Structure formats: structure tokens, C-alpha cells
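Please, structure for the following, as C-alpha cells.
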Amino acid sequence: MCQSPKVLKLEFGWSYVSLRLPEFISLPVLKTVHFKSVRFSGESRTSKFFSTCVVLESLAIIYSDFSFPLLENLILSCPKLKHLVIENDINGENWYNKCYCKVKVFAPYLESLRCKDHFGRD
């Protein structure tokens, strides 16, 4: 029997790679997720992925694309999340012409948040 991973790291250098999450995924012991250069698409599946990671404690999203219209809302509903990093501040990137989605975080035990990005203020 295959065991569920505790750590998931997807890093794709400096080019975005589309992440197409499955309709159903079960990662009951996943504690750490690190995405680098991922292009999120599909609000429902992306939000569902994070909500099914019930013991997730650490999440890092680095140099990734969650721009509208691919994703209207990035919903991070993680009941055990303690550490969240979102860094998309790419020097030289034409960021001011992008329309980013709204990021909504539901993490009652969050201890640290590091955010470096050019989000719209709503």
C-alpha cells in the first residue's frame, strides 16, 4: 500500500507550469506544501485541494501565477495552517498590467504570514 506524503514540493524554475488538480485527492497527513512557478487554474479544484489538506501546517507559494481570469479567488481554508508565505514580487515583471485574483485565508492557528506581492487592494 502506498503511503500518503507529508511533504509536497513542486518547483519548476522560472517558467510557469499549469497545475491541473484532480477532482478528488486525499492527502490526510500532508503537513508541508511548497509551490514554485505554478500557474493555478480552476478555482473550485484549487480551493478544494487546500481544504482537503486538513493537517497542513506550512504553505509556500513562490513566483506563481494566480491571476484572473484563470482564478477569481484563491481560497486557502486550512484549519491547522501555522506558516504561510506568498512571494510573487518579480523585478522587471510587467506586474502592474496583471489583474490578480482575491486571496482569502481561513487559518485560525496562523502564526506567521510573509506576503510579498503586488495584489490589488480591495
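The chain has a mean pLDDT of 82. The first strand starts at residue 7 and ends at 11.
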